[in-house]
Amino acid sequence: MILFEISREAFLPFLVCTFLIGIALGAIYDVFRIRRKAARRANKMRLDLVLTVFEDIVFCLFATVCMILATYKLHFGIPRWYAYVSCALGFFFWQKTLGQLVMKLSDKIIDLVSRALSLIKRKLLKPALLRVKKLTSKITAKRQRYKTTVLHPEIGGANGLPPGGSSRRSRVREPSGE
Q1: Given this model, what pLDDT does residue 120 score?
Q2: Which of 32, 40, 52, 38 is nearest to 95 (CA)?
Q3: Sign of the alpha-carbon torsion through 82, 86, 87, 92
């Protein structure tokens, strides 16, 4: 086994960086925890179980990639056990300090996010969807008229006129034979 020594100048920045990565990973994991709490409040337990497994897998892959990149950038790709311990300590530090505060405030965070989303839905999405619905109904009506007048003149007559070729207004009355 080949052992590579790390210089004292690189040791402390490497530990601090991996500790900060652990703190960042703890903050990211709290986002998942808050989403889970919101799902429990909405009584979506079956969907929550599937999403929890998926989120945990994605989080573990993300954390692994972060540590691999940090090791590659900061220590030439040589993994060190103390880097992983430092990252775990950063994660633990976040969970025991600010993470607990975030989870205590999570109900307020959930309410704030749900209000913001309902405001966006009410102010932006509903008017936009109504405009789209009006536009599609106009397009559908024009398309239907086109089908009946141009494609099937025997049904609707030519140029949107009733069968017979002329409109009621433009019909000229023939004088009676008196």
Answers
A1: 82
A2: 32
A3: positive
The predicted pLDDT at position 175 comes to: 59
CB of 18 closer than 8 Å to CB of 90 = yes
Q: Using CA atoms, how far apart are residues 168 and 151, in angstroms rounded to an integer? A: 22
Is residue 23 within 8 Å of residue 91, measured between CB atoms? yes
Q: How many CA within 13 A on the CB side of residue 79?
A: 10
Q: Which of 86, 76, 74 is nearest to 25 (CA)?
A: 86
Q: Which of 16, 173, 29 is nearest to 89 (CA)?
A: 16
pTM: 0.62
φ and ψ at residue 86, rounded to 5 degrees: -65, -40
